[in-house]
Known about the structure:
The complex is a heterodimer of chains A (490) and B (102). Chain A has 490 residues and is of the alpha/beta class. Chain A has helices at 8-16, 22-40, 48-64, 106-113, 156-163, 180-186, 220-230, 248-254, 276-291, 307-322, 341-352, 355-368, 374-397, 420-425, 431-436, 464-477; strands spanning 43-46, 75-79, 117-122, 169-174, 189-192, 212-217, 262-266, 295-299, 400-404, 440-448, 451-458. An eleven-stranded mixed beta sheet of chain A has the order 1-3-2-4-6-5-10-11-9-7-8, with helices on both faces. In chain A, α2 runs antiparallel to α3 (48-64) and α10 packs across α13 (374-397). The longest helix of chain A has 24 residues, at 374-397. The two termini of chain A are 13 Å apart. Chain B has 102 residues and is mainly alpha-helical. Chain B has helices spanning 10-19, 26-43, 78-82, and strands at 88-89, 92-93. In chain B, strands 1-2 form a two-stranded antiparallel sheet. The chains are: A alpha/beta (490), B mainly alpha (102).
Amino acid sequence: xxxxxxxxxxxxxxxxxxxxxxxxxxxxxxxxxxxxxxxxxxxxxxxxxxxxxxxxxxxxxxxxxxxxxxxxxxxxxxxxxxxxxxxxxxxxxxxxxxxxxxxxxxxxxxxxxxxxxxxxxxxxxxxxxxxxxxxxxxxxxxxxxxxxxxxxxxxxxxxxxxxxxxxxxxxxxxxxxxxxxxxxxxxxxxxxxxxxxxxxxxxxxxxxxxxxxxxxxxxxxxxxxxxxxxxxxxxxxxxxxxxxxxxxxxxxxxxxxxxxxxxxxxxxxxxxxxxxxxxxxxxxxxxxxxxxxxxxxxxxxxxxxxxxxxxxxxxxxxxxxxxxxxxxxxxxxxxxxxxxxxxxxxxxxxxxxxxxxxxxxxxxxxxxxxxxxxxxxxxxxxxxxxxxxxxxxxxxxxxxxxxxxxxxxxxxxxxxxxxxxxxxxxxxxxxxxxxxxxxxxxxxxxxxxxxxxxxxxxxxxxxxxxxxxxxxxxxxxxxxxxxxxxxxxx
Amino acid sequence: xxxxxxxxxxxxxxxxxxxxxxxxxxxxxxxxxxxxxxxxxxxxxxxxxxxxxxxxxxxxxxxxxxxxxxxxxxxxxxxxxxxxxxxxxxxxxxxxxxxxxx
Lengths: 490, 102
């Protein structure tokens, strides 16, 4: 068995029994990245020297036998929007091409503290704006299942790195489906966490009221291992939740069935536009979940058709404010061949940002400008209240909701890039979760024409344990998460 | 989305671009005019929703106090911060002049 095929649990056992060292494991991944990533293009930065240094530190720690956790010595990748001390952090934007933060984001720091090994940073749509990674300022990531297709976005590099065996897990970030959709398109498991469950300190923000960091891995159990390592309150993020994070993986060991759980099926998510094979896969998955003891009930989320316009209006507004800081003065690229400050701003931003980023900054500046604020931004925030109330009502009748992650499987590279509105509409099943701040898990549940299908399991705030329980029991009865793309054996 | 239609033309796009500090090319300006129309038409669907008496959603975490003790902590060393600054002098950030010469 090749080392990239090991689960995190198995790799941990071999590290602890010292049959494999973290350095060997890390070298195996780095060699595989060098061989395969020129085709997949999941990484924008490979931090080989730092990774080997960290791996040797892990090996010393294992030898000493002190403070070991299930992730000690385990390699991983991280989305390029997470600040990494001394390692390029670009958000796949030309404007941050050479930016090296002087501090680690809290999530990265927590993984460092247990000597998990950062292999490198993964490609994304610029600043998280996109559903395909085609908006990366550097290059497009390819779907490991078929290189002609997109991996989804915006954490497309993270999903592709896990699916192709170029990292056993990855830290992604989800603003409006950016963990779940690429997880679905690439056939891996991904968790969008409750808003505030994982500290956002050091995450380069896109939409401050939507952004969440979440794990991506091959199985629900591995996602749980990563979540318990990064969750918890952080004094450096005032919006992080004070509630203690449970040991998610421990509670999974005790789960035997899904008795006593009521699962809501929101009828608005199973309408025209949903691919027939995706629908069939979902209906089969729901039956399997019922056979584990759960009861399925139909529920309604009546404001679902408004989720996309609300999401995008708030995104445009908050993103245009958050991206105002990229101006060529304190960090990032800077067009210095100018006479005056205004020119520095105009030229740096014109050259540094890609088309989609400019489009959203423009739309946000417009939506926030005098005379239009009430009609666009305020209206969207009011409808957001109604969408949140839909979820509150639904969760009075059930413990979790099941829907598709995306209405179709992955689309072809180039298919939607010329029509931004068409691209926005592919997010129809994922954005409402971010408007409500609730958690949602994406789990592989089928394959259609060689491309994976994903199931989304949503729950109320801080219900990660329930979602992981449902996903874990589902994976104990099915093997969709164990299927690999053709390049897995390369 | 308001009662009168928003008139999206090159003038409006150029005016917004200046506010957003973007030096758009002619081609970008033309492209944005047509794409803005489509996107603003689409979000107009929100007019169907009655939001009379609905409060806007604000940033929400659980109600919690996040005030900490006012303790002195080490700050970022100046040289580490300045390492990313495009141009600096004597620990100051250098920018081009703001006004025309008198």
